[in-house]
Protein: 2-dehydropantoate 2-reductase
Amino acid sequence: MTHTRHWIVGPGALGRLIALRLAEDAAVTLIGRRTIPVVQTLLTPEQSSLVRRVEVARIDALPREVPDVVHLTTKAHGAEAAHRALAGQLPAGTPLLLWQNGFDCQPRLSARHRGPVLCASTTEGAYVQDEAQVTHAGHGHTFLGSLDGRHGALAGRLAGILSSAGLPTEAVDDIRVRLWRKLAVNAVINPLVAHFGIRNGELRDAPYRDRVEPLLAEVASILTAEGITPPDGEGLEGWRRLVWQVIEATAANRASMLQDVQAGRLTEHEAILAPLLEAAGRHRLAAPHLARHLDTLRARADALAQPPPRC
Structure:
């Protein structure tokens, strides 16, 4: 995969971050429902500016060149529709890399796609400034692999490409566990910061800190029942350590759910909270705090779907 061609479907913050990092040594096309400026600027965590010219295309007018890999960087709720729009244009065997939060569309797309499917779990932080500028808010780490443990060589090659582009990445054979771990962190952090309109680090302060613990306790109970362990330690203490480490490391970040709320977009609540509540139901566990947040976000989604009143 020397000088690879990458299609990046979903030119939001994460998609543009990946594109602009890859563009120095790879052929990159940003694909969305509408076109964006071909000259894009990435503001780095070191306060420098990285300016790149990238190809752009609409998903209804795909390029003729066949990609070596397709990165699907849409929100979770848009991933399957985006895949349907492009799948017929891809030769069988084209690798697909899924970058969605939560654990919802990944199994379905892994079964449906006509080629290798890898999933990514990343802590890279980014947010959009405007149509031509995105901020890389904080360095993170990415894990990637397939849900069934196959395609290790492909995962290793893509991890090397991403790492060389400045996005440290590791190929793993337990990506399902890592997706659940990230879901756990997101389920604690995202609903709170979205509800209160705060950055991640403000969860360390009163009165928000006390609201973290009830969510932590519910998430820990559910994932223990599912057989998912935190990376360091066991049970509630292990999950508490992981969540607070992420809060510290991403203190300046505006979480993706907060960005979506502020922009008037649909959030990824179904991909992040619904799988946990489904698991809670299977294990007959109460999760009232998670359920309350999901109900609130579903009500907001219903309101967004309603047509505006006539004057």
